[in-house]
Amino acid sequence: MCRLMAYIGPTVTVADVVVRPSRSIIKQSYDARERRNDSSLPFHLGYGNLNGDGFGLGWFPNLSNDNTPCVFTSITPAWNNENLNRLATKLESGVIFAHVRAAYPGMPVSEQNCHPFQWGRYLFMHNGVVAGFMQIRRRLLAELSDAVYNAVQSFHSDSAVSFAVFLNHLPDLHTQHPPDVLLQATQKTIATIRRIQTEAGVPPSDVSLLNYVVSDGRSLIATRYVSISEEAPASLYYAEGSAYERESAGEVSRKYSAAAKALHGEESMEGVAGARSRPVTEESDYHLLYSDKGSRVCMIASEPVTSAANDWVEVPANTAVVVCREKGGILNILLAPLSGTDARQEEVVRCLESVSHAAGFDGHGGGGGGGPHNCMHHSHSMPAMHRQDSQLTGMDGPADSMDSGAAHAPGGITSSPFRAESGAARLAAMLGRSGGAVSVGEDDMLTGHSSSVMSMACANGLLFSGGTDACIKVWSLAASKCIATLEGHRGPIRKLEIVGGRLFSAGAKFVRVWALTEGFPCLAALQVADLRGSVKALAATGDMLFVGGQSCHVMAYKLSPPHVAHDGANGGTNGGTWSPVANGAGAGGSALVTPTVPPSPPDDLNAAAAAARDCSGPTGLELLASGIVGGANGCGGPSSETIRAMVGSAQPPCAASDPQHSHCGSITALAVCGPYVFSASTDSTVRVWTADGLRFVKVLRGHRGSVLALYGGPGIVLSGGRDHLIRVWDVETLVCRRTLAGHTDDILSLSGISVPISPPDLAALVSPGSPRSPTAAVIAGISPIGAPLAPSGEAAAAALGAPGSPRTGLERALLFVSAAADGTVRLWSAKCYSCLRVFCSRATGPQPPVMSCALTDSVTVGGMPDGIIRLWRTDDVFASAFSALLGLGDCEGSQHGGSAVHAALAAAGATDAASPNGPAAKRVRLELPSGVATAAAAAAAGAAGLPRRPSLVMASGAGTGAVPALSASRLERELERALKAFIRIKTVSADPAMHEECFRGAKFLLRLLESIGCEAKLVQPVEEKNPVVLGRLVTDPSKPTVCFYGHYDVQPAMEDSWKYDPFELHSEDGWLYGRGTTDNKGPVLAFIYAMRELLEDCKAGGTCLPTNIVFLIEGEEENGSTGFREAVQQNLRWFEGTRLVVISNTLWVGERLPCITYGMRGMISLSIEVRGPLRDLHSGNEGGVFTEPLADLSKVLASLVDSHNNILVPGFYANVRANMLQAALARLEGSHEFSLDGYKQQLGVQELTSGRSEQDLLNARWCQPSLSVVDVRVGTTEEQSNPSHYRFGPTRFSVIPKAAVGKVSIRFVPDQDAAQLVELLKSHVQHEFAKLRSPNTCSLQVHSIGDWWEARPDSPFMCMAERALQKEWGVQPLLVREGGTMPVASSLQKMLGAPALLLPMGQASDCPHLANERIRRLNLLRGKNVVKNLLVEVGAAAAAVAQQQPAVPMQQ
Known about the structure:
Layout: E1 3-13, H1 14-18, H2 25-30, H3 43-46, E2 55-59, E3 70-74, H4 82-88, E4 92-100, E5 117-119, E6 122-129, H5 133-142, H6 146-149, H7 158-168, H8 179-200, E7 209-215, E8 220-224, E9 237-241, E10 243-246, H9 249-264, E11 286-289, E12 297-301, E13 312-314, E14 319-325, E15 331-337, H10 342-359, E16 379-380, E17 413-414, H11 417-420, H12 423-433, E18 437-440, E19 444-446, E20 453-459, E21 462-467, E22 472-476, E23 481-486, E24 493-499, E25 502-507, E26 510-515, E27 522-527, E28 535-540, E29 544-549, E30 554-560, E31 592-594, H13 605-614, H14 619-622, H15 642-647, E32 655-656, E33 667-673, E34 676-681, E35 686-690, E36 696-700, E37 707-713, E38 716-721, E39 726-730, E40 736-740, E41 747-756, H16 759-766, H17 774-780, H18 794-800, E42 812-820, E43 824-829, E44 835-840, E45 852-855, E46 859-863, E47 869-873, H19 875-885, H20 899-907, H21 934-943, E48 954-955, E49 961-962, H22 970-984, H23 995-1011, E50 1015-1019, E51 1028-1033, E52 1041-1047, E53 1066-1068, E54 1071-1073, H24 1081-1101, E55 1108-1114, H25 1124-1130, ...
Parallel strand pairs: 18-44, 52-55, 52-56, 56-66, 57-65
Antiparallel strand pairs: 1-4, 1-12, 2-3, 2-4, 5-6, 6-7, 7-8, 8-14, 9-12, 9-13, 10-11, 14-15, 16-17, 19-47, 20-21, 21-22, 22-23, 24-25, 25-26, 26-27, 28-29, 29-30, 30-31, 30-32, 33-34, 34-35, 35-36, 37-38, 38-39, 39-40, 41-42, 42-43, 43-44, 45-46, 46-47, 48-49, 50-51, 51-55, 53-54, 54-67, ...
Helix pairs in contact: 5-7, 5-8, 7-8, 8-10, 9-13, 16-17, 16-18, 17-19, 20-23, 22-24, 24-34, 27-31, 32-34
């Protein structure tokens, strides 16, 4: 019995397929493990493992003008042929055949009989035997035409004659045929052999084994046939994936070492796959990757050639594997029966014709060029608008009662223009076809997956994502943070679905069920696939689980009541068994499949390794499920019995689809809608089955090429695939209602939201005098996931169903989203099937494909091949779409914003193709059914770092809550767009070259303030310095005025360690990166937009602002604040009535809890200069002959502090007040927001000189003075302002400077006097310098002084700030001090006669002034809300005081 293998896919080196794999066909030539035993043959043939009677290699060369394959054969054993090794390492091809021969008795051993055989464009090889060949040979040859007869390579070989019979059944020997023609020729070949055997009287008990493999370089057909159904056929497997690659040496070593340790208790390599000496140079393990929704590699083999058992699928008996090419290098693998009804074979041919049509074959006998290089990558030219089927012409063959109408895209098969475009041209082309507003660039990115994100699901403010890295990540959408990683699957996560409070996940051979409760425990693991292939799709209802995959069958499993035991320590089930337990363990909604699954190989490598150590029963084989343990002889790979044990046995389903009507290709998607289960497949069809027994209903045709995605909505099912089209199927009539065009490449994923609408809300909406806005009325009555809400009144029901009402039949509404390989995500409305919005990640360059998508009430989500998840905020589209569904607006999407603000942003380049008009969006909840996921939602908030507050947990029935996704309102989106434009303006005040940019930044703020109604102006008291922006909004002179201070200038961003362009806003994992995001552009805009929201709230409620507002925003804060004091003093009338100054330019002490700053240190900046000779001198000529200035300076600087950073200046610690830390410690000690170890790690130091405890350290940082030497430069103070002074470059080592300057930063604390400290320091420096007795001169110069600032923690305004923070964050804020200095706080407090309040928005890790400066989006938006709360508090306090004592002002 021979062994064979074939490869089709991207070009590879022949050695990587034939020679180097650990279970290569070279290994199989002397160590075959699955040869069929045959007692009728001599023992060495019937029971042996040798295939040494010759070998052959065939390949298609990568030549554009030659489509004929090459063949190399020899009668020597493959394991001992050096020429094979030499050739294999040099040859490259995309289609490779390899065969090792074990000749049957009577078959000559000669090169003419060595496979593969070649004629014209065809390669052919055979494993098996034609029963009674010598008896029927003459009859077979008589069937041949003259041309084919002359092509017979050997009349002694049943294989060579079989090849001739195949050629004889081809319509034309010289034309490249579509795969259905090759399949029919193969089927006729087998039928001819069987017919002639019958005619010749060959005994029926003689077994024919006809495993044929044939290819024309473009398609490949492989058969597994046995003439007697009761007999076992010769083994045959196939494997498919997106790529085929070699494992690294380290990966292989670790894998084998772990396997050996599991088997033997030590890292011995005995008995482990690949442990023996390797006879082939560079032998290694190979594996398939699964990073795409389609396959680009397919391998056919008598035995698996890689050690990963899950890669391989056993070909069913009497079945042909048909491998054909789709566009873009994608392979389509279909299974066709070699026996059975004619109707079934006709169905396969019909599917193949549809796939071939999409791939570029116009018809039979047509087609051009051959060879693997000629993939004919074509696609339909899509129209720009959606179309109804009635408007189209053309049908997919004759229509019958089982088919719906099929639509052809006009224009036929043409090269897609989208593929030829790039950059701006491509984006412009997409804009032209979009049919919806285009949003370029995501609003946020989530990072964590290491490879492609293949599936996603959303509920309760949580996003679940599964990738090819075999893990599921749980994200809090509110915090844009990963809060859990669920592990257990061994293969790619193909599908995630949430039903009834449970998460179902499909990966490799298993479906796992996870509880949506705290910790997300795994309730059970069910093996639903075996050697018939992996699971690729699942769908679930309340009591049924449906799965499908490579087996081409839909299978159903019954879910029992919610009582499932789970292994909390392992995150999985006990041995993979789903078993009921008493008292209902696994609360929160769980699942059980009945009947109970018998113990099976655990879906977990660690569990398998532990089982292997027990050495009982088959557990040693369970480790093989990971694909890393070899057979007992240590040669690597599976034996004839172990591969089945490696994969394990699937749990029998309670129902399965009828094989006569099942798909011909892998099932790619499932959807349950109404009474039906819909299944999509690579065979280009969607099939419909009854949900209660999987009885066949209908075939839905129309797609060309693989159907890759399904989504079931209310009354409709959507399908999308490689023809770039979305087809809308009516569930009731099972016909295609619409065909939606727009995407320009494969549609890879579909998702959506079904929304029941409450009739009472509709009645309230249409009732006279209703105060509710249309959008609010709609959204108040929807629940995007769950049962429809029941009517509560006859009037409402009557109004809803009134004839002619635009609301008739809109009880259930739908939005859906599609993701495609063209790099776009499209958001659609089901009311008029229009595209509302198009999202893409880049403005230029190629767009990466979007592998998966999901939709919530606030965001559209796309999963990318690089593991990144991109989010686009779409709650505005959500709200406007539902208004349109009720006939309250046009069926189109728009972004909303005030026209004045929109104009201001447009002037600064902040708008992204957005319309300024439209209603305000409201927050909508996305919830699971009653009683589910409350604990998970609360746990999500805690894990994401969100304080648990009542306002976060929104009521939903009795005792039910859900943490909603952070709904980005219209103004919040506008805030982020404004910040994006603001960051883009390079307002670096320290760089004179950026002076114009700074002026642009000032004008940006001026227009923004004017857009909200402020009286605004620019003030520039000092020429060549950046202006101060003043804005004033006075609505009631009797109300208090609050002054907000901020600055729009930023530090330079010259560090190389920036992750992104520092002057382009980037969002990642909820963080907004860019220079100025936290210091101070983000807080400035947060305050402005807080005012804008207050203005809109007041307008809607008919009230006035609680306070008057003054904006004071300077542009020189990072450069000494030159001119700032003068600007304030010249415009004091603008600040009349100011009661409070609010500053947001500090940080939290940690990452989780909000803070209020109640004290800051002051700062003295000075320099100490030592001067010596008149010029710089050469160290070689003059070194050692005079007192050098730099040496003197070093000694003086060393005298300022000791080794523990204690200041050595006498009297420096005088007037330091005690107990300044008490207010902070009262709340900090139990908060866990600060630790010594965390602080050291943050600084990157091993030891600290101050503080043995957190209290000592904070006291040293906040409440004690410090002195730091921050810079030492050579040359005089005047020379250091000239950068060209450092002109010596590498020769600096030979120059003794004539002068040296040391810069010193002093921080002093409340009650200390800056002038006194300067005098103390001068005296100390003079004293220490005098001790040196140096002829040089020493001087001290003060450059700037910033005073300390302090507020009473119990002052009224501090209490108001506490209440404002607690209302928004749900926790009591911390009281903190800061070691830094903000001179403006004390200066404004003195100039305006009003207390200052420091209200930080950013976290401790925000990196102001450093690379990768950032602010968390959540902090920015909640900081805006805190400002609103504070202004309301101040206004309410002022009103209360005015009522009690009108003449008495509020006190600090």
